[in-house]
Structures are given as C-alpha cells and as structure tokens.
Amino acid sequence: MKYICQKCGTCCHEVEGKELGYIKRIPLYPEEVDRLINIAKEREITFRVIEDLVFPDIDNKKIYVVTYRILLDNENQCCPFYSNDKGCSIQNIKPLACQAYPLALKHIDAFNFQISIDPLCNFVVDEYEDLKKSDLEKLKEIFVYEYPKAEKFYRKNKKLMFKIRQLEFEKKIKITRDISIDDFNKALKEWDRKEIKVGKEKS
Ligand code: SF4
Ligand code: SF4
C-alpha cells in the first residue's frame, strides 16, 4: 500500500470527529505565520491566527507561544488558502504540519509528542484496518514523502520543548504545571507574549 491523497480537502477544513470528539487543528510556527501573512497580503486574502500551544511563565508573567493555528474562513469553514477548484494554493510552501499530513504529532503530555496518523483523513478512513496493523517501517514505506516531514516536525517540536526546559533549568522562566483554568484564562488576557523559536532545519 502507498499513500495517495484523494484530494477531498477534508484536512483543510475544520472537521469535528463525531465519535472521537476530536477537532482538527492546523498548527503553525511563528515564522510560518509571518510567511503566510506576507503571502496573504500580496493576494489580498484575510488571514488570521490564534495562539495554540502556549506555556505560562509565572515568574515573568509572560505567555510563551510555541504554535498558532489558522482561523478558518467564516463562510466556508476552511483554510483561507484553500479553494474548491484548485485545493491548496500554497502547495509548495505550505506549513510543515500540512506537508506531514495525514501524519501528525500527538501530545503524550505537556512537553512530549509522538508521531501518529490523523484518523480523519479520508485515505486513513478507507485503509484503517491495514494501517492499524502497520509497524513503523511499514508506515515509512506507505508515507514515503510525509514520514520524513513528520520526523522534521517532531524534531522541531522536541527542540522547542528542550529550549523551554533549558530556560527553566537556567531559572530564567518558571512554567507552571499546576494552574486553574480561571487563572490560566486571566493570564492569557493580561500577560505579554513571547514567541519561542529555534533555528532553521534542513529539509
Ligand atoms: S495551507 Fe494548504 S494544505 Fe494547509 S490547510 Fe491551508 S489549504 Fe490546506
Ligand atoms: S483528508 Fe486526506 S485524502 Fe483528503 S485531501 Fe486531506 S490528506 Fe488528502
């Protein structure tokens, strides 16, 4: 079996997994946001993001932002770079998460992730029985182009998490693991933002 995208566009839309209680996200790193903002400006497209993966630093009263996610086009509930006739209009420069898809990163805990398969992709739905029996080597064969992208995605997240932990170790920040929802929401409203970035990786 080899992965072949059905070009259905499901992954470019917000889809709620009915049985899974799962909502798809399109995570973006800060530098990807900057790049897409520029493209959107050139094309006169409305492009908005919201913060996604964030860590509150209680010593400096700052919110560290690791990723954002794309706010969908209100009318079509899809990514603003998606069109029904052409699909993704930034195919060659799309975000890393989109390059790796239908492979994605799943949270193990606040600081750890693992490569997983997104169960909402229609190829995955069709081939689910075979995919769930596939080991890592088999997955690499099935997702020939996507697996290296997912590994790049994984390494980048790992470096970002390492950077946060290093700052904590150096006592420059203090990320709280124990914060109530009310205090977290208050911090989100009141504290300044700082983006966490790591250097570029080779493709
Ligand atoms: S960037 Fe392209 S592939 Fe990614 S969600 Fe938007 S339209 Fe889809
Ligand atoms: S949901 Fe899967 S099959 Fe459909 S366009 Fe996205 S990657 Fe391709």
Descriptive notes:
There is one protein chain. The protein is globular and about 50 Å long. It has one domain. A 3-stranded antiparallel beta sheet has the order 3-7-4. A 3-stranded mixed beta sheet has the order 5-6-12, with helices on one face. The chain has a two-stranded antiparallel sheet with strand order 1-2. It has 6 helices and 12 strands. The protein is α+β, with helices and mostly antiparallel strands and 203 residues long. A hairpin with a 4-residue loop joins strand 1 (16-17) and strand 2 (22-23). The protein has helices at residues 30-43, 96-100, 122-131, 136-142, 146-169, 181-190; strands at 16-17, 22-23, 27-28, 48-51, 54-57, 62-65, 68-71, 82-83, 87-88, 103-109, 112-117, 192-195. The site of one iron/sulfur cluster (SF4) has 12 residues, from helix 3.
